Amino acid sequence: MNDPKPGFIGKSVERREDYRFLTGNGQYTDDITLPGQSFAAFLRSPHAHARIRAIDTAAARAAPGVLAVFTGKDVAGVNGLPCGWLINSIDGTPMKEPKHPIIAEHKVLHVGDQVALVVAETLAQAKAALNLIDVDYDVLPAVADTATAAGNATAVHDIAPDNVCYTWALGDKAGVDAAFAKAAHVTRLEFVNNRLVPNAMEPRAANAVYSRADDSYTLYVASQNPHVERLLMTAFVLGLPEHKVRVIAPDVGGGFGSKIYLYAEETALVWAARKIGRPIKWTAERSESFITDAHGRDHVTVAELAMDGNGKFLALREHTTANLGAYLSTFSSCIPTILHSTLLAGQYTTPVIYSEIKAVFTNTVPVDAYRGAGRPEATYLLERLVDTAARELKLDPAELRRRNFIRSFPYQTPVALMYDTGDYDATLDRALDLADVAGFAARRAESEKKGLRRGLGYAAYIEACGIAPSNIAGALGARAGLFEAGEVRVHPTGKVTVFTGSHSHGQGHETTFAQVVADKLGIDIEDVDIQHGDTGKTLFGMGTYGSRSLSVGGTAIVKALDKVVAKGKKIAAHLLEAADADIEFANGEFRVAGTDRKKSFAEVALTAYVPHNFPLDKLEPGLNENAFYDPTNFTFPAGTYVCEVEVDPATGAVRIDRFSACDDFGNVVNPMIVEGQVHGGLAQGIGQALTEGCVYNEDGQLVTGTYMDYAMPRADDLPHFVVETAKGTPCTHNPLGVKGCGEAGAIGSTPAVINAIVDALAPLGVRDIAMPATPYSVWKAIQAAQKH
């Protein structure tokens, strides 16, 4: 861990927010009941693809307690949900953007598509009324398979008759082809990066109310970015004045990306709240979440790595078909492109790279960012290739990586990114020590005595966090800024309230942000209050995703703090009868340089609000500052993970015996919270590798729609994690020197697990394992290899 610094930065301060959560005093959206509360339920399509011939809602409207029933005809004049990132195809044509209605109008395009909205006095009455709605469907063939969607005889959307949204590319195709032509060795893999369901602990929920008194709306919603939710809903869909809509995201029970987006349900509730003049609440049931929350991953990939005779990487290329689902979700278009292909250099000096992505529509739930968002897919592709290449070249996997590590910074990759700093040898060496790789051969021998196979898998990942800067992102298609805002309000007593546009839904912002503020101002952490999640309180904000909170949101706060201190120096100079330039600030005190004359932070704060004999011609009263911060670059956390597994070849059962991780997150504000974030990411990445897999049948029916079929990782699936944060290479372009940490575990763990399983089974002829590597999947791979 980083050595604790004076003050609060670097200390494992206990999470301040945990007391209310552990004692049941958190307030989530579903906990909020408003005067005159009504309840909503959505009728959802049982078909993956069908025309709506007719809907009879008469019986439902007449049912007890029903206040209103709305269908697609009622919202036909409402715009569709927008996509926030424009991607152009190789030929320069823009991506296809079909309308995503808030209630299906003419067709349903996936199981779970909303067909009608019922509002009633009670939730039970709303649900009962759903059964009284009669829908006449003309069922159509479904497109459910990612690999065969392009060019399928059935079109999901008329605007995309071949089901292709875009075909996009990045890199030097000619250079890559030339490098492959002269390569001494080429490693090739074909694989599927399996589709995942997010499964946040708290399901999505919304409660919308309209006030006739001032013609305003308030939406309580389980969201990761309330300001973006408001902007998209008002400006692009409902056409409402933004200042007349307040969005509040109270406590949120996890998101993992699935609560970034603007969804149809909350938008429909805001629209309907004015129609009925009552607040309307909707909370998803878990079965609804499976068929409505944006899914993740779902790539079908062919990847190749070209090397010279010494194992130096010459070139990499990929051709991936990425499933977007039935509609474009808020950021879905940039996940398999901008956030994926730009990470294909990894930690290596590969001179040329070419990535071609074909994004397709299918009759499945929309796919968007899920913890890591494009970066896990890139790391899986690259690290599976590297381990496979090492085996083919009969090289130690760690040695092959060392031969290709980047060691000179800043480093311009061939896929657009500029790494500012890193030390990949250090994290690899430390991970090998933590994993006791030196003792692996003895442990393998012991396993073999028991008839078991033991394997060791590596993954050296890099992540790009805090998407930035806005002008570059805009040039790449982003339809929004990617800055963050912070406001620091110092009260007359010296207590501080901070308003941030970042949103906490498990990350611990109320603790880490307070640590930063207390450290910078030299005050007690209990004197700092962190406010977030309310567009009526905060200036603006882009929310929390992409491991951006501290590096972007925290920097905005630091910049506001700098303004507070600068003004405080002027006030102190007046009080101490000194020149502004002679005032120094440290440890909560303003001091005249070279003397013992000083004023405390609290004294200066009080003077700001009680300006007796104040030079009002030079200073205005108050001590309240705000700042916006737009990063000049991503941050680039990196690390090495080592997984050790034991496999029973008779049954295919896999047991993770050891898992070791060494990460470089730059400077660390709270080591305990960082370790917790890594643990959570590891669990999710291991879940993808071993148990989780979202499966649709050929008719577009979700086969894995409950926890009976969709296997979330359990405690006994996970080993004891050995996690260490390296001394680190601080980020060079934010004042805290921090990098993102929230997604790293989910990025590096998946390929490490699969590499370990393949290593264990390589003597049996197994070269690859499909995810999830369930016992049956592993057993099948063993049987297939032995037949050959």
Distance between the termini: 48 Å
Q: Walk across the major sheet and give the strand order.
A: 3-5-1-12-9-10-11
Strand segment tally: 28
Helix-and-strand structural type: alpha+beta
Q: Using the alpha-carbon principal axes, give the shape.
A: globular
Unreliable sequence segments = 1-5
Give the integer mean of the pLDDT values.
Answer: 96
Largest sheet: 7 strands, mixed
Helix content: 25-40%
User: Over all CA atoms, what is the radius of gyration?
Assistant: 27 Å
What is the overall number of helices?
Answer: 18
Strand content: 15-25%
Short structural summary:
With 788 residues, the protein is of the alpha+beta class. It is built from 18 helices and 28 strands.
Description:
By secondary structure, the chain is α+β, with helices and mostly antiparallel strands. The protein is 27% helix and 23% strand. The strands form 7 sheets. A 7-stranded mixed sheet has the order 3-5-1-12-9-10-11, with helices on both faces. Helix 8 runs parallel beside helix 17 (744-761). The longest helix has 28 residues, at 549-576. The two termini are 48 Å apart.
Properties at a glance:
788 residues, alpha+beta, seven-stranded mixed beta sheet, five-stranded mixed beta sheet, 18 helices, 28 strands, globular, disordered N terminus
Write the layout of secondary structure elements.
Elements: H1 18-22, E1 38-44, E2 50-56, H2 58-61, E3 66-71, E4 107-108, E5 114-120, H3 123-130, E6 134-139, E7 164-171, H4 173-181, E8 185-193, E9 205-211, E10 216-221, H5 226-238, E11 245-248, H6 264-276, E12 280-283, H7 286-292, E13 299-307, E14 313-325, E15 352-361, H8 375-393, H9 397-404, E16 411-412, E17 418-419, H10 424-434, H11 440-449, E18 453-462, H12 470-475, E19 484-490, E20 496-500, H13 509-521, E21 528-532, H14 549-576, E22 583-586, E23 589-592, E24 598-600, H15 601-609, E25 624-629, E26 638-647, E27 654-664, H16 671-690, E28 721-725, H17 744-761, H18 775-787
Parallel strand pairs: 1-12, 10-11, 14-15, 20-21, 27-28
Antiparallel strand pairs: 1-5, 2-4, 2-6, 3-5, 7-15, 8-13, 9-10, 9-12, 13-14, 16-17, 18-26, 19-20, 19-25, 22-23, 23-24, 26-27
